[in-house]
Amino acid sequence: MKGILFTILSISVFASCKKSTNNNCINEQLTWEFQTGKQIDSLKNPDPGFTRSPYLYSINNGNNTVFIFRKIFADCPEVVDDEGYRDIVFQVPSDVTSFQLNDSVELTNARAWSQQYCYGCDGGHAITSGSIDGYKKSDNTAYQCCITCSCPSG
Length: 154
What we know:
Distance between the termini: 47 Å
Structural class: mainly beta
Number of helices: 2
Radius of gyration: 22 Å
Mean pLDDT: 77
Strand content: over 45%
């Protein structure tokens, strides 16, 4: 009898819960930019407790063109710790008009990096597999790029 009462009570509790139909979520967003006269440097993560990602990247003055692709995760106010984003960055010499980075050596030389910023994420990793192709458009104000890489999830 107690089992039946518990089952009926459990069903009534779950049935009374109503999923909110109010969608206040901010949709996922993609942004991209390039900066000339810059370079990517890696640096030791200043947080000694963050052992899953001992390195971060920074963008400083230099002689390259640095590309930054950012995926901003969807953010729902009723979900705790779902906000965050992932960056994919790489650099090429400023004087090139097209590029193909197809192996681990080329990707390493381009300092290709994936960095994830969110609660519980494992931080940053060098991109060592995949390809990045691109060319400068004829008006010299934009690039067309295609990135296919294996980025560790975290």
